[in-house]
Amino acid sequence: MEIWINPACSKCRSALTLLDAEGADYTVRRYLEDVPTPEEIREVLKRLGLEPWDITRTGEDIAKELGVKDWPRDEAGRERWIEALSRHPKLIQRPIITAEDGTAVVGRSEEAVRDALSR
């Protein structure tokens, strides 16, 4: 199990606290420092069953600068979103937890973190 976190994020800290309380075996990835490649983002999206715009933090300043809210949300525009997430990892929703069964969840709630633990 791997968890992508930003240490400044309260949701990330809560997820780590829960994982520790449950005795989970996991690896921490500080994704702002260890930036995911486009291929890693594609793989996580596949595991999540989501599209890149589903995990993009559109309220971030860089999102506003890039104008992502106006970008097409279709197959033709998919790579543009993935490249933006890789170039600007602050745009990635957090925390993302990859589960042992090959799936992943965005662990913003206790329920989501527990879901990842049960897989």
Write a structural description.
There is one protein chain. Strands 2-1-3-4 form a four-stranded mixed β-sheet, with helices on both faces. A hairpin with a 5-residue loop joins strand 3 and strand 4. By secondary structure, the chain is α+β, with helices and mostly antiparallel strands. It has five helices and four strands, in the order βαβαααββα.
Sequence of secondary-structure elements:
EHEHHHEEH
Strand order of the largest sheet: 2-1-3-4
* C-alpha geometry: globular
The low-confidence parts are none
The proportion of residues in beta strands is 5-15%
Describe the sheet with the most strands: 4 strands, mixed
Average pLDDT: 97
Count of alpha and pi helical runs? 5
Characteristic key phrases:
alpha+beta; 119 residues; 5 helices
Offer a quick outline of the entry.
The chain has five helices and four strands; from the N terminus they run E-H-E-H-H-H-E-E-H. The protein is an alpha+beta fold and 119 residues long.
Give the topology.
Blueprint: E1 2-5, H1 10-21, E2 27-30, H2 38-48, H3 61-66, H4 78-87, E3 96-98, E4 104-106, H5 110-117
Parallel strand pairs: 1-2
Antiparallel strand pairs: 1-3, 3-4
